[in-house]
Amino acid sequence: METKRITVNGIELAYVEQGEGPLALLLHGFPETPGMYRHLMPVLAAAGYRAVAPYMRGFAPSQVPPDGSMLMKDLVADANALHEALGGDGDAVIVGHDWGGFTTWGAAALAPERWSKVVVADVPPLRFYERRAAVPEQIHKNSHFYFFQMGVADQLVPVNDFGYLDWLWNHWSGDVAGYDPAEDIRAGKEALRDPANLRMGLGLYRQNFPADAFGTEKWEMGRLLAGLPTQPTLYLHGSEDPVVDEEILADIVAALPEGSDGVLLQGVGHFPMVEAPEEVNRRILDFLGK
């Protein structure tokens, strides 16, 4: 697919698209690219959507933000500005994974008139993170949140052709037969290979989880994402991604509006769109009524 460019919210974003119809905006996370949605895009296009997957600000070939901001408020503003610039209407849907998932929670809650339905994978609403925040195994699983706060991460992450990203991807993957992450890892590395892009990728964690405010009343991202969507929402989560279990999933669905649903994908890790694409595609299409 051809990589196109569009300027929104004061920044030039690269994106790929497929299909015609109501907008389906697909937001990736770290260390990912729109390739995360290579299985979903043609399915959505065949179902009558214009599937658009942008490269997140700061991830090549999108622009490095001139002010250096990777704050959640700007990621959310990017998503809602894309809806406007791409001619989205009230039938548009938004899908997000990882950091794209955080962004989706915020964009859907702050501009409900733009998005008719919401799909998020593997990042629950922030209020549910505290349920396992003190579990030592979970603290260890999230070690990259703390490592990336350190200035030395800029030097260590690129060593051995970004060997840390190889480890991080495998650390969060499930045990799905037949899935080879090599292409996804390679694409993520290329999006962050330039030191300026890597600073922005690490800036997601440094700016949105600042050591002096994270978890306190001063935590800006916590305030921004305190609300939940009022639209029907599908929440997908891999069973091998320990942030959410069956009990927490049930509570998430109960907190979401009528028409919402949630699925714990068995044997799947943090990357369900590529680890279990057939099941994910089927569940998303069913949720959208297609």
TrEMBL record:
Q: Tell me which UniProt keywords the record has, alphabetically.
A: Hydrolase
Sorted alphabetically, which SUPFAM superfamilies does this protein's record hold? alpha/beta-Hydrolases
| Annotated Pfam families | Abhydrolase_1
Which InterPro entries does this UniProt record tie to the protein? AB_hydrolase_1, AB_hydrolase_fold, Epox_hydrolase-like
AB hydrolase-1 domain span: 25-277
- Gene3D superfamilies from the entry? alpha/beta hydrolase
| Keyword Membrane on entry | no
What is an example of a GO molecular function annotated in this UniProt entry? hydrolase activity
Q: What is this protein called in UniProt?
A: Alpha/beta hydrolase
Question: Which organism encodes this protein?
Answer: Streptomyces luteireticuli
Record lineage:
Bacteria, Bacillati, Actinomycetota, Actinomycetes, Kitasatosporales
